[in-house]
Amino acid sequence: MTYDRVYIRLAAAGDFDKKFLFDFQKELQNVLYDNGIKATCFYNNSGTIEVDKIPSGAYTSHIGKYNTHSLFSYGQTKREDSLKRLGQAAILLKVLVIVDVEIFKQGFAGLLFGEAEVGKDIAIISTAPLENHFKSTFLIKERALKEALHELGHTLGLDHCKNPGCAMNISKDIYDIDEKKKKYCIDCLNILFRGHR
């Protein structure tokens, strides 16, 4: 990474409790810091938490889920807004879109917790598949933090990792997420900070 600080615009859409979002923001910033990443996480430039409606064009009725293509567009709009307001096109600004509905990616048939493209600016996570029958807010938040770290890792240049426990390891179900740590392994940290494997 060639920037001293990463700015992460959190773009929440759906029916979220603001306390959940406040705690998530604070803990995500701490988790990133614990991984050596100086990050400023924010919902908007005024410092308040805003929750949008999920973009109506994202819903795909014949699948019954929301397509990530539309959510990437939503995230890009939030990024452009933040760049205008921050007035600095040279800063490292990522957007994490957080939704509470089931999402899908064209051509992928499995359970999707999130999506991001390596080296790009937008990451998406969904809390819908992170729930269990207990509806534990703590457990959902812990899983969401791990998935956020995973998807943001992609935006920072990391690919999937085979090291068990690494945040960049692929999760096929919630049990895989529970096994992961809120930490990048040493190999992934080397890629982030030294640019080599």
TrEMBL record:
It comes from Candidatus Methanofastidiosum methylothiophilum. Its EC number is 3.4.-.-. InterPro entries: MetalloPept_cat_dom_sf, Pept_M54_archaemetzincn, Pept_M54_archaemetzncn_arc/bac. This is Archaemetzincin. It comes from the Archaea. GO terms for biological process: proteolysis. Gene3D superfamilies: Collagenase (Catalytic Domain). Coiled coil: none annotated.
